[in-house]
Amino acid sequence: MSSLDPALASRLSRNDDGLVPAIVQQHDTGEVLMLAWMDDEALQRSLTTGRATYWSRSRQEYWVKGETSGNRQHVKEIRVDCDGDTLLVKVDQEGPACHTGTRTCFDDGLVG
């Protein structure tokens, strides 16, 4: 796998584990689907393959969304926020995005 473009890599502000949070959004509706984490390799894989790839903090490995569940995310675009500390990954989601089987990870009720 080729390395991340140095110009893009220099714009990113990573946490102590080398990760950047990635907000995942349905590209055509704007629906927020989930939050995941990316390092440079996951970002490069997502850009290169068009399949959303993340770093699993619990399993300590890369995972391609939908590889086992079939609920794939096809990357339409990836944006970097103004501080370089968050990514916005716009995808075409197949099936539910959440591991619980719901469309979005943010449908568990309002806070407050």
Q: What name is given to the CATH topology?
A: Ubiquitin-like (UB roll)
Number of domains: 1
Indicate the overall shape. Answer: globular
Q: Write out the CATH superfamily name.
A: Phosphoribosyl-AMP cyclohydrolase
Relative strand content? 25-35%
Name the quaternary structure: single chain
Rounded radius of gyration (Å): 14 Å
Main sheet: strand order: 2-1-6-5
CATH C-level name: Alpha Beta
Number of helices: 2
What is the helix/strand order?
HEEHEEEE
**Based on DSSP secondary structure assignment, what is the total number of beta strands?**
6
CATH architecture: Roll
The termini sit apart by 45 Å
Index terms:
112 residues, alpha+beta, Ubiquitin-like (UB roll), four-stranded mixed sheet, two-stranded antiparallel sheet, 2 helices, 14% helix
Give a nutshell description of this structure.
By secondary structure, the protein is of the alpha+beta class.
Could you explain how this protein is built, in words?
Zn(2+) binds at residues 82, 98, 105. This is Phosphoribosyl-AMP cyclohydrolase. It is a single chain. It contains two helices and six strands. With 112 residues, the protein is of the alpha+beta class. It has a single domain, classed as Phosphoribosyl-AMP cyclohydrolase (Ubiquitin-like (UB roll), Roll), CATH 3.10.20. Strands 2-1-6-5 form a four-stranded mixed sheet, with helices on one face. It has a two-stranded antiparallel ribbon with strand order 3-4. Strand 5 and strand 6 form a beta hairpin. The longest helix has 10 residues, at 40-49.
